[in-house]
């Protein structure tokens, strides 16, 4: 055997650039800078970066972030959940049926909805780990089943697919305000009084700031991102997530409870979808059967833009959150810039393709494959 | 030396049937602490089935397993690992996309308390990983280097170091050298030697007689699901082992034509 030396002449030192390249967040950071630069130049004067405009794209981004974090952790563990969009519609409808149609207290309606949806998430996970079928197919089935029920149930009990009156039912409810309220109103009032942000100049809102506070939706988004990031990078469970997606069999041989990890993450994506739904219905005041359409794909695209590998085992929550931000800024930015909105889909397809190609290249860098 | 001690693992008359297929028809092997017991056999001889019964993946149809003198029933691999029997599989040892340090502690993550949370102690994990790798003669760029950048031999070595670090008393190595080059094979064999000297019992599965002769203390040959016998080092020549593996067929003629390189 060769003598132990402190360095191996065959291992080249890698450059800082190469080292930075193998961080999963890189694509997200570069993309975010590019997107902001682009819209500052193109739509800098359109009000996109005034208080109201910022609130507009930040809200959309926060929505994407909530479901992207769930999809990100699940994708790193090697699975997909295509039922997220349907779950959003279904969860919103459950809140409306329990809280409005049945007239139960809103906090019971919301808690019950969380229990039902997370159970459905657990069933998704159980079917996937028990049958060994691709989660792509299993959750595609759930996508249709849940969408069907979120049309059928309100049709049957209310004879319509849109149930309103949630705002009134949620009035003064402690749990509903955790999802639908806004915080920091005094600060925004002060900012308005100081002339830092705009105020309404006429009507019954005269003197009120154009942005009255931070919606709880954003607080949830931030909370879920921090939770997901710490869980993934700083805990034992996080190591199990990487292991389950990297090579499930190798992980099992050293005693990682792979099935438990996957089932819990299916429950977490269901949780994220339900948070999304409850924030949405408490803000709009109504639930509709078609809510959340295509959200599952948007979540997956945000995660891929954020640097995660579709094959699992690699990715980052911060990256996914930046992917969601890019998504939100571009979708709303094209509107501010006056670009035809159908071009957003073209952009989406192109960026998705670029991200996947870049990620495959980065995977080779990490593993040293040629 | 080996025969004065009690064996750490005794496998007595192990039979394993898969439906109508008799994979093992009565295999008996004992393994002593601090020895390298080589299990040789051609493809289909039952080596894999045999070590899978030892590591808890399969339950034997007949026969008994004594671990440290007491009869043991392993329901799953986890039981065997807890008892101190660790197995390193050829392809499934490591996860390429994860760092060496994350791989090393996979399933045994060190925790530290930060306020109300129990977090993965990366500092400790990184330090221990670097120390252990140094002991095994692997120079890492850093503990966060991905396993995918290591060579096949280094991956086997990391897996062996991991098993030993977490208290394996019996280390089963499933064909650790069969996919490796000359130099990497030498590294793995020297790792086996280091591990044996710490008092761990090593079960080394291979079909390469030269690799077995390099480190083995005793040699058991399996053929068609049966033990053909166990020999001590110095009692048997490589040619005899080779012939036994081939089922007693004379390989002399073939060996002559190939210049003795089989």
UniProtKB/TrEMBL annotation, chain A:
Entries under InterPro entries matching the protein: ABC_transp_permease (IPR001851)
Record's keyword annotation contains Glycoprotein: no
Transmembrane spans: 20-42, 54-76, 82-100, 107-127, 133-153, 210-232, 263-285, 297-330, 342-362
Keywords: Cell inner membrane, Cell membrane, Membrane, Sugar transport, Transmembrane, Transmembrane helix, Transport
The keyword RNA-binding is assigned to this record: no
Coiled coil: none
One of the record's GO cellular component terms: plasma membrane
Topology of this chain in the membrane: Multi-pass membrane protein
Record-given protein name: Xylose transport system permease protein XylH
Organism: Litoreibacter roseus
From TrEMBL, chain B:
PROSITE patterns documented for this protein: ABC_TRANSPORTER_2
UniProt xrefs under CDD domains: ABC_Carb_Monos_I
InterPro entries with a match to the protein in the record: AAA+_ATPase, ABC_carbohydrate_import_ATPase, ABC_transporter-like_ATP-bd, P-loop_NTPase
One protein family per Pfam: ABC_tran
Alphabetical UniProt keywords: ATP-binding, Nucleotide-binding
Keyword Ribosomal protein in annotation: no
Sample GO molecular function, one term: ATP binding
ABC transporter domain sequence ranges: 9-249
SUPFAM superfamilies the record matches: P-loop containing nucleoside triphosphate hydrolases
Keyword Transmembrane helix: no
Residue ranges of coiled coil: none
Database matches in PANTHER family: CARBOHYDRATE TRANSPORT ATP-BINDING PROTEIN MG119-RELATED (PTHR43790), SUGAR ABC TRANSPORTER ATP-BINDING PROTEIN (PTHR43790:SF8)
Name this protein carries in UniProt: Sugar ABC transporter ATP-binding protein
């Amino acid at each position: 055997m060769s003598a132990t030396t402190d360095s191996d002449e065959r291992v080249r030192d890698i450059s800082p650039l190469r080292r930075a390249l193998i961080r999963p967040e890189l694509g997200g950071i570069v993309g975010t800078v590019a997107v902001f630069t682009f819209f500052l130049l193109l739509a800098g004067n359109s009000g996109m970066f005034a208080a109201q405009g910022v609130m507009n794209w930040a809200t959309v981004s926060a929505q994407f972030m909530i479901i992207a974090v769930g999809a990100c952790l699940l994708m790193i563990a090697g699975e997909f959940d295509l039922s997220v969009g349907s779950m959003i519609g279904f969860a919103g409808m459950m809140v409306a049926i329990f809280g409005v149609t049945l007239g139960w207290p809103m906090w019971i309606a919301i808690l019950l909805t969380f229990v039902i949806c997370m159970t459905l998430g657990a069933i998704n996970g159980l079917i996937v780990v028990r049958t060994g079928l691709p989660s792509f197919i299993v959750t595609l089935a759930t996508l249709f089943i849940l969408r069907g029920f979120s049309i059928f149930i309100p049709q049957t009990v209310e004879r319509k697919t849109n149930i309103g009156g949630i705002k009134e039912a949620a009035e003064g409810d402690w749990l509903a305000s955790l999802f639908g309220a806004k915080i920091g109103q005094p600060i925004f009032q002060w900012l308005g009084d100081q002339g830092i942000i705009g105020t309404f100049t006429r009507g019954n809102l005269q003197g009120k700031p154009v942005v009255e506070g931070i919606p709880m939706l954003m607080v949830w988004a931030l909370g879920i991102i921090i939770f997901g990031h710490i869980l993934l990078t700083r805990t034992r469970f996080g190591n199990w997530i990487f292991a389950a997606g990297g090579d499930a069999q190798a992980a099992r041989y050293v005693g990682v409870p792979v099935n438990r990890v996957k089932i819990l993450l299916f429950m977490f994506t269901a949780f994220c979808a339900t948070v999304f739904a409850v924030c949405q219905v408490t803000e709009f005041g109504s639930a509709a059967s078609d809510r959340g359409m295509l959200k599952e794909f948007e979540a997956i695209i945000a995660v891929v833009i954020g640097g995660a590998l579709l094959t699992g085992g690699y990715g980052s929550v911060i990256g996914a959150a930046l992917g969601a931000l890019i998504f939100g800024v571009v979708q709303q930015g094209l509107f501010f810039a006056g670009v035809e909105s159908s071009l957003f889909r073209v952009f989406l397809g192109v960026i998705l393709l670029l991200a996947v190609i870049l990620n495959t290249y980065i995977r080779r860098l990490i593993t040293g494959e040629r | 030396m080996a025969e004065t001690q009690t064996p750490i693992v005794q496998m007595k008359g192990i039979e394993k049937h898969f439906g109508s297929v008799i994979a093992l028809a009565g295999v008996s092997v004992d393994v002593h602490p601090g020895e390298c017991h080589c299990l040789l056999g051609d493809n289909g001889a039952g080596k894999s089935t045999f070590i899978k019964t030892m590591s808890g993946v399969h339950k034997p149809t007949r026969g008994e397993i004594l671990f440290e003198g007491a009869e043991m029933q392993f329901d799953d691999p986890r039981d065997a690992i807890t008892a101190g029997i660790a197995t390193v599989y050829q392809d499934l040892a490591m996860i390429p996309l994860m760092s060496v340090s994350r791989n090393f502690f996979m399933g045994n993550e060190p925790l530290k308390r930060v306020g109300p949370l129990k977090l993965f102690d990366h500092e400790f994990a990184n330090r221990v990983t670097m120390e252990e790798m140094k002991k095994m003669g692997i120079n890492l760029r850093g503990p966060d280097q991905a396993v995918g950048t290591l060579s096949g031999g280094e991956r086997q070595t990391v897996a062996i170091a991991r098993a030993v670090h977490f208290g394996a008393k019996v280390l089963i190595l499933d064909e650790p050298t069969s996919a490796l080059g000359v130099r990497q094979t030498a590294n793995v064999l020297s790792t086996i030697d280091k591990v044996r000297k710490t008092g761990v019992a090593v079960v080394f599965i291979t079909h390469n007689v030269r690799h077995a002769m390099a480190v083995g203390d005793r040699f058991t040959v399996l053929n068609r699901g049966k033990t053909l016998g166990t020999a001590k080092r110095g009692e048997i020549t490589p040619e005899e082992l080779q012939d036994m593996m081939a089922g007693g067929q004379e390989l002399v003629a073939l060996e002559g034509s190939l210049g003795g390189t089989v």
